[in-house]
Specification:
There is one protein chain. It is built from one helix and 14 strands. It is mainly β and 187 residues long. The strands form three sheets. It has an eight-stranded antiparallel beta barrel with strand order 1-4-5-6-7-8-11-14. The longest helix has 8 residues, at 64-71. The chain is globular and about 60 Å long. The two termini are 15 Å apart.
Length: 187
């Protein structure tokens, strides 16, 4: 088994969540500089391993007051749980470019199994700049991962009621992660 190690390029990797708001629209939040690694055997991709870390303190929705509320104990409780993590436990290839990646997602110190539907977007040799000069090429690969989670499963349970029985925030949250990974040079 020959595995290759890939490192998420944090400047080009990010995560997003989408929640229904006030029963009528959607609000999205972003996390930049997502860090992670993949170890992949190109001949047996189902043996791949993936790990990722998100800095929850850096949540951005475009509204500072909402961002502060999301960082509070009502939602992400970043003073006690500043990072979220994911560690894969199973990879299942469903098509030439489609995978189901199951693993443990930890948010607010609560760990639950989550399955991401992952689309492989391809790979390409690209320049690699260090110290002001191109020492490439380096191989890059792209992926998009999507999952739907119940926020209450992770202790994110704040809500408020609006007129006629509606709620401020939906229970189900869509999570999308866009990954640009760079293959590490062979040792």
């Amino acid at each position: 088994m020959v595995t290759t190690k890939w490192v998420f390029e944090p400047g080009h990797t990010g995560a997003e969540f989408c929640a229904r708001h006030m029963m009528v629209t959607y609000v999205r939040g972003q996390f930049k500089n997502v860090r992670g690694t993949m170890e992949v055997d190109p001949d047996d991709p189902e043996k791949a391993r993936v790990e990722a870390t998100i800095d929850a303190t850096q949540v951005y929705t475009g509204q500072p007051e909402r961002d502060a509320h999301l960082r509070s104990a009502d939602f992400f409780d970043v003073d006690n749980h500043p990072t979220w993590t994911f560690a894969s436990s199973r990879v299942h290839q469903v098509s030439a470019t489609g995978f189901e990646v199951t693993g443990d997602l930890t948010v607010r110190g609560v760990t639950r199994p989550v399955t991401f539907d992952v689309s492989y977007l391809g790979q390409w040799d690209t320049p690699w700049w260090e110290g002001g000069r191109d020492i490439g090429p380096r191989r890059r690969a792209g992926f998009t991962a999507k999952a739907r989670v119940n926020r209450h499963d992770f202790g994110v349970s704040w809500n408020d009621v609006v007129d006629r029985g509606g709620v401020v925030v939906s229970d189900m949250i869509d999570v999308i992660v866009d990954v640009e990974a760079v293959r590490e040079p062979a040792e």
